[in-house]
Specification:
By secondary structure, the chain is α+β, with helices and mostly antiparallel strands. It folds into 2 domains: about 200 residues, Metalloenzyme, LuxS/M16 peptidase-like (Cytochrome Bc1 Complex, Chain A, domain 1); about 200 residues, 2-Layer Sandwich (Cytochrome Bc1 Complex, Chain A, domain 1), CATH 3.30.830.10. Helix content is about 45%, strand content about 20%. The strands form 3 sheets. It has a 7-stranded mixed beta sheet with strand order 1-4-5-9-6-8-7, with helices on both faces. Helix 1 crosses helix 4, helix 1 packs across helix 7 and helix 3 packs parallel to helix 8. The N and C termini lie far apart (about 50 Å).
Amino acid sequence: MLKIVLAGLLTVGTTAQAVSPAYRIDKLATGLEIISLESRKVPLVTIVLAVKAGGMTETADIDGLTHLWEHMFFKGNKRLPDQEAFKKRIRQLGIVYNGDTSAEKVRYYFTLPAAFLEEGLQFMADAISTPLLEEKELAKERRVVLDEYDRSASSPGFNLRRIRQKLIYGDRSHRRDPLGQRPIIAKATRKQLLRIKKEVFVPSNSAILVAGDFDPKKLKKLVNKYFASWKDPKGWKPIVTPKFQPFPKPETVIYTHKQARNVSVQMTYDGPRARIQQADSFAADILISLLNHRSSKFYKKFIDSGLCFDAGLGYYTQSQAATVDIYLTTSAPKVNKALSALKAEVKEWLNPKYFNARQLEDVKRSLLINHKRELNKSSSFVKTLAFWWAITGLEYYGSYIESLRKTSLQDVRSFVTKYLINKNYITTYLMSPEEAKVAGLKDNSKPFIKRFKLASKGARK
């Protein structure tokens, strides 16, 4: 069955304006969804394969290997039996490609001339359905992924992020961290990757998205031609992800690193899960923009005053688990004053006069403008659709702008009460040892590093 969806409406004044083009949703008999967005601006097409996978579908013994699988996706397959043949075909078709893996989604995507749409679909189908996963190539990509890991591990806040994840998610923290564990990546086997392919890289857990210059009447036939042979393993069922532990009691972690600059403080709370707490996720997005509004009391008090270099609220839309972060960055002499003021300010967000209707109108208009800007480039917009398809489902995204329009200041205050006021939170500090002395603070991270068996600062493990 074919559905045509208009991605969102926003009423500005008295005029209802469609802000998103229609995209089509269809499905093959194999369970593979097809989402297509026609745009004739330039003779290009972008093809995205989205999968509901990532950290959330991993167990501790394969922690980080979905990301390694992402690298192996761009290797040889049954039709293109080695890396040289694969690269040659990329050059022939003029493909620009990449992929990404996160806690709740995997995307593989490439853009190529519209004249090669059929060849591009075949190329994608071969890559996902018949990968060779050769040991020689696996050895190369293990090294590449380990280099990525080491670059990430060299950042000042790496261990602090892992401590925070361990505190919040306990022994299931790997389900929120697609980077994984270095020893597991270093010893990854072809058998483990084949297991991941069988468990999550299947049609019923995936969608193919196409945007650009193509004939929508022919697309389903082309997708069926090349993807119909890719089928779920017999008896396949979606992985049931176990529940996370309740949000923990308050903890404070002070972490120093010689390469840290300024002082960063973050208070992390439990946040809304977008599939089941949709209205709360919209309120979070509005609150973020209200705090960033240049005329807001918050911006004037914390940024314009010079008390902080940066301060605000963060929320990354997720469905399996999510957090809300109140943060600030400032200098060591100001950190204690700034943090005390920030903690007190949260209660002020409940004051009906803290934000006003004009500010609310401004942030809604700004979100609409950003949405329209994204729509101007179909190659970017289709990747966004792939994200929302995997994380929340397209019904959530299709109503996103309209839902923001309906969000009131009272909804924002209700969000603050529900998620922030008198709720447990984890406080984390990141600064240099010299800044810690100025602030009168002492690094207390060693017991956490030992407790969670993390590598010591600057060391590999």
